[in-house]
């Protein structure tokens, strides 16, 4: 296996601010998987269609929001009390954006115009300093770039077998789409 290459943080922040997808990896001791992340304010119909094509998605498109925003929108937690998930992912009930399964402010979800269910995730206060998850990373990237605090994310999967992409496959996929 070859080592995965990472962009300098300044380049990644500028790309995020400019509306590009980032591939964000967590470490081997956690899940060792990659997520595609884009600021919610930069999500367009075309970008959401692109994220749902094979080799890129797990079927779940999530939107990471601070807890205060979820409370304003009255989106309840899926598991309100004792979350048994190994990484304590703070899932809410799903939201049917197009058909109004929950009362959601379209400005928060930017231009997500596909008819799909989104799974809002609650980012923990303190961001990645309190939980090293993709959920917190998406909101922290928005904060660091001065964008509205809503990040769209989707786990990368291998289109051949459906497994979550680890470091090696994520690196290959990232290079393929960067070159193409």
Automatic annotation (TrEMBL):
Family matches, as InterPro entries: DHBP_synth_RibB-like_a/b_dom, DHBP_synthase_RibB
Region forming the signal peptide: none
Keywords linked to the UniProt accession: Metal-binding, Riboflavin biosynthesis
GO cellular component term, pick one: cytosol
Gene Ontology molecular function terms on file: 3,4-dihydroxy-2-butanone-4-phosphate synthase activity; metal ion binding
BP terms from Gene Ontology: riboflavin biosynthetic process
E.C. code: 4.1.99.12
Superkingdom, natural source: Eukaryota
Entry keyword Repeat: no
Pathway it works in: Cofactor biosynthesis; riboflavin biosynthesis; 2-hydroxy-3-oxobutyl phosphate from D-ribulose 5-phosphate: step 1/1
Protein name: 3,4-dihydroxy-2-butanone-4-phosphate synthase
Phylogenetic classification of the source organism: Eukaryota, Fungi, Dikarya, Basidiomycota, Agaricomycotina
């Amino acid at each position: 296996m070859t080592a995965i290459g990472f962009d300098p943080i300044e380049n990644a922040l500028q790309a995020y601010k400019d509306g590009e997808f980032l591939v964000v990896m967590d470490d081997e001791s956690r899940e060792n998987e990659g997520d595609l992340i884009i600021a919610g304010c930069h999500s367009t119909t075309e970008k959401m269609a692109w994220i749902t094509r094979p080799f890129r998605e797990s079927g779940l498109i999530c939107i990471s929001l601070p807890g205060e925003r979820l409370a304003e929108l009255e989106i309840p937690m899926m598991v309100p009390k004792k979350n048994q998930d190994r990484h304590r992912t703070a899932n809410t009930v799903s939201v049917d954006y197009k058909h109004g399964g929950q009362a959601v402010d379209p400005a928060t979800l930017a231009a997500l115009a596909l008819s799909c269910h989104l799974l809002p995730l609650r980012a923990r206060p303190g961001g990645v300093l309190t939980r090293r998850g993709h959920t917190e990373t998406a909101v922290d990237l928005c904060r660091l770039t001065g964008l509205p605090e809503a990040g769209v994310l989707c786990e990368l999967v291998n289109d051949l077998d459906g497994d979550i992409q680890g470091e090696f496959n994520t690196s290959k996929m990232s290079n393929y789409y960067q070159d193409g």
